[in-house]
Amino acid sequence: MRGTDEVLLRRVARGEADALTALYRRHAEGLFGFLQRLAGDRMLAEEILQDTLLAVWRGAERFEGRAQVRTWLYGIARRQAHNRLRSVRPAETALDDVPDVAEPAAGPEELALVRLDRDQVLAAVARLGLRHREVVVLAFVAELSQAEIADVVGVPVGTVKSRLHHARAALVHALAELEGTQR
């Protein structure tokens, strides 16, 4: 039985392992991409994904339906990642060093991002602080809406917009630094 995510989750809550497998097949690729970008390490992302699935298995009966199942899953994945990454301190780009962008519309800096090498962009994303990195990944890798990101992260939509704005500026700054070191 295929069913919607909600039906699958109710089945998971009843202890049906095949429903968890079906839910995994639907969402594993997106969740893994999100976790890999947060963790910066494939193996660690796989471990966090397994922790996420275990948490879903144990907590499916607590799903209240206030959000979409997909959003709920990303929230669990985010919490599992934060639990694992507390002791990991990636190099971060300080937002104090980043000039504030006056207009959130695509400017020359954002247009330059399109022309950059994928590895450069991923390296720059990895340099962002966790709060900024997660909203970037949720928006551009998982393709969640700002409202869905707000649900996952547990902040108002305005905070998501602000974090995305500052993350873009920090990305531009980090990319400029990476460009300078590669010359």
**Major pleated sheet:** none
CATH class of the largest domain: Mainly Alpha
List the uncertain runs: 98-104
- Principal-axes geometry comes out as elongated
Q: In DSSP terms, counting alpha (H) and pi (I) runs of 4 or more, how many helices? A: 9
Number of strands: 0
Write down the secondary-structure element order.
HHHHHHHHH
Mean pLDDT: 82
Termini, distance in Å?
56 Å
Q: Work out the helicity level.
A: over 70%
The CATH topology of the largest domain, please?
A: Arc Repressor Mutant, subunit A
The CATH architecture term of the largest domain is Orthogonal Bundle
The domain count comes to 2
By CATH's scheme, which homologous superfamily of the largest domain applies?
Winged helix-like DNA-binding domain superfamily/Winged helix DNA-binding domain
What proportion of the residues form beta strands (DSSP E)?
under 5%
Rg? 18 Å
Please tell me about this protein's structure.
With 183 residues, this protein is mainly alpha-helical. It folds into two domains: 81 residues, Rna Polymerase Sigma Factor, Chain: A (Orthogonal Bundle), CATH 1.10.1740.10; 88 residues, Orthogonal Bundle (Arc Repressor Mutant, subunit A), CATH 1.10.10. The longest helix is centred in the last third of the chain and has 26 residues. About 4% of the residues have low confidence.
Summarize the helices and strands and which ones pair or pack.
Blueprint: H1 5-13, H2 17-39, H3 42-59, H4 69-85, H5 108-115, H6 118-127, H7 130-140, H8 146-153, H9 157-182
Helix pairs in contact: 1-2, 2-3, 2-4, 2-7, 3-4, 4-8, 6-9, 7-9, 8-9
Protein name: RNA polymerase sigma factor
GO biological process, one term: DNA-templated transcription initiation
Family: Belongs to the sigma-70 factor family. ECF subfamily.
